[in-house]
Amino acid sequence: MNNKNKIVLATCFSGIGAIEQAILRLGIDHEIAFACDNGGRTINCDYDIELQNVRKLKNTESKKKYVDDLYKTNSKQKNFVKESYLANYKISEDHFFEDIKLLDGTDFENKIDLFVGGSPCQSFSIAGSRGGFEDTRGTLFYDYVRLIKEIKPKIFIYENVHGVLSHDNKRTWNTMCNVFDELGYHYKWDILNAKDYGIPQSRRRLFVVGFRDSDENIKFRFPETTELNFSMQDFLEDTTAQGSLLSVNGKLKIIDKRVGIVEERYYLSPKLLKYCLSPGTKNFMHHNAKIDLPIARALLSSMGNSHRSSVNNYVTTNERVRALTVREVHRLMGFDDDYKIIVSKAQAYKQAGNSIVVDVLISILLNIYKGGTKKYQEKKI
């Protein structure tokens, strides 16, 4: 914590702001120093050379402009993630950076309390026997830990898919642990499932929490599991109309039992229904083709593509089968109805599927700052 009892937050792979939502829902006083996400766009450039060029510039503003111009020149795509982020959080465009690979973390050295990110799972090239920091070069994980080294935050939270632990006969995870060891931070890790922290979705993810201060690390424990009080059906708009699922004292509450109306576009046509409910073909059979589950399957960034019911979540309402709405999938990621969805249906599905579950982060934050400043003690956080 800084001297003003305000958390200074920074995020990369920021997405639609899961940690920001967690902090907002808890009512924690905070300031967003920067967010960084290129929205899945790619540009052709020599990143090593361009990062050197960025570092030569005199200030953060000129560095940001340089990278922004690179994207304007080399990409015609919009950054839809940036649009969603800026619509929901108190941060100016000047503090939203386009590319982690071209971000100079030294501009924020010793200025950040909490640094959060979750790099996409990429293969690691294990060049040496130790498998440390240099062996991760070329991956986005490398850039995440590079920023930790440069920023020196008091605390970091890292998230990834749980499959990282077994990937490449555990060599990937061993390499990542070696990298975390080299940072000099004290860290702990665990696999947490969203359904154990208040959200009716079976979504297991790896979380690593690191502390610069060893005493803080000793005090920290990953949160205990909690009772699940919602089913997926509680989050459906037919059951709970838009505007009725809100956060009260950090917990999701249904404040109004009004039923809602779901748009026709979400209902499956007879042809699509037959495909989605089919167990598959002879060479590719799905044996878990169920719908109307009380606990949703893990949401995918590609869920808008009408996968089979063994992969996607489908529900029966008004005696018809439909896909989940964009509001419902955001609810299943812990974003209450105050969150503004301003992008297309396809982009909204993708952004929700790529996010971290807010309520899991809330549980982690409570254990990080539990018994901290007087302000948080009074709030019983």
Overall description:
By secondary structure, this protein is α/β, with parallel strands linked by helices. The protein has 2 domains: 7-227 and 356-378, Vaccinia Virus protein VP39 (Rossmann fold), CATH 3.40.50.150; 232-353, DNA Methylase, Chain A, domain 2 (Alpha-Beta Complex), CATH 3.90.120. 30% of the residues lie in helices and 16% in strands. It has helices spanning 18-26, 47-56, 60-74, 80-88, 140-151, 171-183, 214-219, 270-277, 326-331, 345-353, 358-369, 374-378; strands at residues 7-12, 30-36, 96-97, 114-117, 155-161, 186-193, 204-211, 245-248, 251-254, 280-281, 284-285, 314-317, 320-323. A 7-stranded mixed β-sheet has the order 3-2-1-4-5-7-6. Strands 8-9 form a two-stranded antiparallel ribbon. A two-stranded antiparallel sheet has the order 10-11. Strand 10 and strand 11 form a beta hairpin. Helix 1 packs across helix 11 and helix 5 runs parallel beside helix 6 (171-183). The longest helix has 15 residues, at 60-74. The radius of gyration is 21 Å and the shape is globular. It starts with 6 loop residues before the first strand and ends with a helix. Residues 371-381 have low confidence and may be disordered.
Largest sheet: 7 strands, mixed
Q: Low-confidence spans: pLDDT under 50, at least 5 residues?
A: 371-381
Number of helices: 12
Order of helices and strands: EHEHHHEEHEHEEHEEHEEEEHHHH
User: Strand-residue fraction?
Assistant: 15-25%
Q: Rough shape?
A: globular
Oligomer: single chain
Number of strands: 13
Mean pLDDT value: 90
CATH fold type of the largest domain: Rossmann fold
CATH superfamily of the largest domain: Vaccinia Virus protein VP39
Overall number of structural domains: 2
